[in-house]
């Protein structure tokens, strides 16, 4: 089980990848006036419902093809970054990640937590985890298996993004590429 210190350390690592939007200082009167004149609706990003093929022609190396899949997924779905790691937690490919080793280390902590959950509750299989990082962003961790080896894909995205279907589509593409 993760202790308080480990959870806070993981939170610090996540904050290195997220830039909070600037907040403006306003008076209470301005907020009331804005609320009266404007109806605020949460922004939602809708994802594609069909699998879009990604052109990987001209990409010789597997790492380049995996990176292209992550890049196109992030651009299409509105994700901030993407990373895929192997069963040892080493980064295989990433898009828009400043420090892939650091994010991979965080993924190892999350996978350790998942493994403990699966041992404690053998009737369940936890392979999809969503964490609220702050009030603006979330982190999604999806683990999958190809030819007996486990892989983990990590995305950070705005909380308003409806990601589940896009994660499933991108995971299928990553599985196909790793398996080839």
- Spans with pLDDT under 50 lasting ≥5 residues? 20-26, 38-50
**Helix-strand makeup class:** alpha+beta
Rg over CA atoms, rounded to whole Å, is 18 Å
The top-level CATH class is: Alpha Beta
User: Biggest sheet: strands, sense, closure?
Assistant: 5 strands, antiparallel
The strands making up the biggest β-sheet line up spatially as: 2-1-5-4-3
Order of helices and strands: HHHEEHEEEH
Total DSSP E strands? 5
What would you call the shape? globular
> Helical residue percent?
40-55%
Summed up, the helix count is 5
How many domains, in number, for the residues? 1
- The CATH homologous superfamily is called Dynein light chain 2a, cytoplasmic
Distance between the termini: 37 Å
Structure, described:
This protein is an alpha+beta fold and 180 residues long. It has one domain: Dynein light chain 2a, cytoplasmic (Beta-Lactamase). It contains five helices and five strands. Strands 2-1-5-4-3 form a five-stranded antiparallel sheet, sandwiched between helices. A hairpin with a 2-residue loop joins strand 4 and strand 5 (149-158). It is globular and about 45 Å long. Mean pLDDT is 77; it is low at 20-26 and 38-50.
């Amino acid at each position: 089980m993760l202790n308080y210190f480990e959870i806070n350390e993981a939170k610090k690592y996540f904050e290195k990848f997220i830039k909070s939007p600037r907040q403006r200082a306003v008076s209470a009167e301005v907020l009331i006036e804005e609320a009266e004149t404007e109806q605020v609706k949460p922004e939602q990003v809708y994802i594609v419902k069909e699998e879009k093929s990604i052109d990987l022609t001209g990409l010789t190396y597997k790492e380049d093809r995996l990176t292209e899949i992550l890049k196109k997924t992030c651009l299409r779905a509105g994700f901030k970054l993407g990373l895929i790691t192997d069963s040892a937690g080493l980064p295989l490919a990433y898009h828009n990640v400043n420090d892939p080793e650091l994010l991979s280390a965080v993924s190892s902590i999350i996978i350790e937590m998942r493994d403990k959950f699966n041992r404690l509750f053998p009737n369940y299989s936890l392979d999809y985890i969503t964490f609220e990082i702050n009030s603006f962003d979330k982190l999604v961790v999806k683990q999958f298996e190809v030819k007996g080896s486990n892989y983990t894909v990590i995305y950070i995205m705005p909380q308003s993004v409806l990601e589940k279907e896009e994660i499933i589509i991108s995971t299928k593409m990553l599985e196909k590429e790793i398996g080839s």
